[in-house]
Design goal:
five-stranded mixed beta sheet; three-stranded antiparallel beta sheet; 10 helices; binds 4'-deoxy-4'-aminopyridoxal-5'-phosphate; alpha/beta; Aspartate Aminotransferase, domain 1; Aspartate Aminotransferase, domain 2
Length: 359
């Protein structure tokens, strides 16, 4: 008998690499642009002396900024340390039944990790060949909850609100979490469905469209009762999840709407340019509504499979200090997930890609 028999053993989520030094980093869907000027002002104006005190446990400055921006009441908003923290709290709060929770086979690879660590039974539902959801798969499947990323990651595929509503309306007895990490880049939000259904939670992040991945700020919208349940669990784990600088930076990012719109539209324009370039090089991909493109190439060399080419491109790019994401997983190991950088970064990326493919 050893202490190890009592250890909670888990296979953790593997985050994308965070290389140091001068690299072109297109592997973790961060924004290539700096945070908003208002965020600089807020952080430069921080009263360091205040750090001796605990931060506001109810995070009111941030909750209140989000509530007024999105036209909700303060008690319909929950915040946390990145949407990873928010999603993890949602799993712990809402997925407490005996039946398996459901999510697509190809989606954010943290969902199965939280299910494992919290001992939540789960079942994955295969996406169709084109990576889209068949909502009928979610109509007659007894379950303890559902989580859907829309737009999805790593595929970039967006589902119509009719598909999302179909899933929510056919599962009134469980909580349906819609992870909208990438919605600002062209997705459709499930936010209007909050008024119609009590079983919906919408989760968002400031890591991508608001250039604040390093601050760790995520948030969720839901009805008052659901948000109260979430807060009850949060206050049973850690009362002070968000630190004072994050609360100030998050509220400032929301205030600077003009900067947000400007950077998001720049990223969308660069994405559309990149799509054209990738198409010209012979890549195929489902249209992306996100700040990344999930692309595959059938290869030009005799005897080189899609998977071999994807791996070769990934490795060669890395050796030239360009980082993209490659997932060694069934169904997607012939793909590369390419985050959208600045125009200049994408130009260099495309030039390098040309050389690699034409080798
Ligand atoms: N959801 C999805 C679909 C994501 O891709 C990510 C980014 N890895 C997250 C949630 C978490 O983002 P964060 O914790 O930075 O808010």
């Amino acid at each position: 008998m050893s202490y190890e028999e009592n250890v909670r053993k888990v296979t953790p989520y593997t985050p994308g690499e965070q290389p140091t030094g001068k690299v072109i980093k297109l592997n973790t869907n961060e924004s290539p642009y700096p945070p908003a000027p208002e965020v600089y002002k807020a952080l430069e104006g921080l009263n360091i002396e205040e750090l001796r005190k605990y931060p506001d446990p109810v995070c009111m400055e941030l909750v209140s900024a989000l509530a007024s921006y999105y036209g909700l009441d303060e008690d319909e908003v929950f915040v946390g340390v990145g949407s990873d923290d928010v999603l993890s709290m949602c799993f712990l709060t809402f997925f407490n039944g005996k039946d398996p929770i459901l999510f697509p086979d190809i989606t954010y690879s943290f969902y199965d990790v939280w299910a494992e660590v919290y001992d939540i039974p789960y079942k994955t539902i295969p996406l169709k060949e084109d990576f889209s959801i068949d909502p009928s798969d979610y109509r007659n499947e007894k379950n303890g909850g559902i989580v859907i990323a829309n737009p999805n990651a790593p595929t970039g595929v967006i589902e119509d609100l009719t598909v999302i509503e179909d899933i929510i309306s056919h599962n009134p007895d469980v909580c349906v979490i819609i992870d909208e990490a990438y919605v600002d880049f062209g997705g459709v939000t499930a936010l209007p469905l909050l008024k119609k259904y009590e079983n919906v939670i919408v989760v968002r992040t400031m890591s991508k469209s608001r250039s604040l991945a390093g601050m760790r700020i995520g948030y969720a919208f839901g009805n008052k009762k659901a948000i109260k349940y979430l807060n009850d669990v949060k206050f049973s784990v850690n009362s002070y999840t968000m630190n004072m600088p994050s609360l100030k930076a998050g509220a400032a990012a929301i205030r600077d709407d003009a900067y947000f719109r400007e950077t998001v539209s720049k990223i969308i324009a660069t994405r559309e340019w990149t799509k054209e370039q990738l198409k010209d090089l012979g890549f195929t991909f489902r249209d992306s509504a996100t700040n990344f493109i999930f692309a595959s190439h059938e290869g030009v060399l005799l005897g080189e499979s899609r998977e071999e080419l994807a791996r070769r491109i990934f490795e060669t790019l890395k050796s030239r200090n360009i980082f993209v994401r490659y997932f060694e997983k069934p169904r997607i190991d012939g793909y590369l997930r390419i985050s959208i950088g600045t125009d200049e970064e994408m130009r260099i990326f495309i030039e390098t890609l040309k050389e690699i493919i034409m080798r």
